[in-house]
Design a protein that fits this description.
191 residues, alpha+beta, Alpha-Beta Plaits, four-stranded antiparallel β-sheet, three-stranded antiparallel β-sheet, 7 strands, 29% helix, 15% strand
Length: 191
């Protein structure tokens, strides 16, 4: 009888501990924020509202406020750069179908970045005038946008690294450079 009470007490304590862990995990999941007029882009340091096109926001563990991005392409770059925090708890982007005016977008419609569809290589420019990864909640809206403005539709995981980390026009950093300048060893491969 004593052993059964002891085992029940230990199981109860373990249950409370596990429930507490679940609550902590739920608290670290961030919901999208609403940018104020003072929200500035993480990389450009400029006011988000002053830039055209969709925006992005990323939450990282241990930080209450999100990192804001004046373009979705910058938000995707954040996830690829080794020097940026990796304990991401939420990535959100504007649904381009709900922006209204591209030049003065309504930044109220946020969707999960990893479940969105993106148009890359379109003629539309995002914040800072660079090529944009234009996000859509629905693939049909992305296809309609691509038919009108060019580009191709891809999932988050299929956005090419070179498109995001390349030049402002979306070409790789090394496009048009002689091989001896693009590869320090001159062998066609980076060390």
């Amino acid at each position: 009888m004593i052993w059964s009470r002891l085992i029940l007490a230990m199981l109860g304590t373990a249950g409370i501990f596990l429930a507490g862990c679940g609550e902590e995990k739920a608290m670290t999941r961030a919901d999208p924020g609403t940018p104020t007029r003072e929200a500035v882009g993480h990389y450009c340091g400029m006011i988000l509202a002053d830039h055209p096109g969709p925006k992005g926001q990323i939450f990282v563990e241990g930080q209450v406020d999100p990192y804001w991005f004046s373009s979705v392409r910058d938000a995707v770059a954040f996830t690829l750069l080794p020097e940026e925090p990796k304990r991401i708890t939420g990535i959100y982007v504007n649904d381009a179908a709900s922006l209204g005016d591209w030049e003065h977008p309504d930044m109220g419609t946020w969707i999960g970045a990893k479940s969105a569809w993106y148009v890359i290589g379109s003629t539309r420019r995002g914040g800072m005038g660079a090529a944009e990864t234009v996000p859509f909640k629905d693939k049909t809206n992305a296809e309609t946008f691509a038919a009108e403005y060019g580009g191709e539709v891809v999932a988050f995981a299929d956005i090419p690294r070179d498109y995001v980390l390349g030049n402002a026009d979306g070409t790789p950093q090394t496009a048009g450079m002689p091989e001896s300048e693009t590869h320090p060893m001159g062998h066609g491969q980076q060390p």
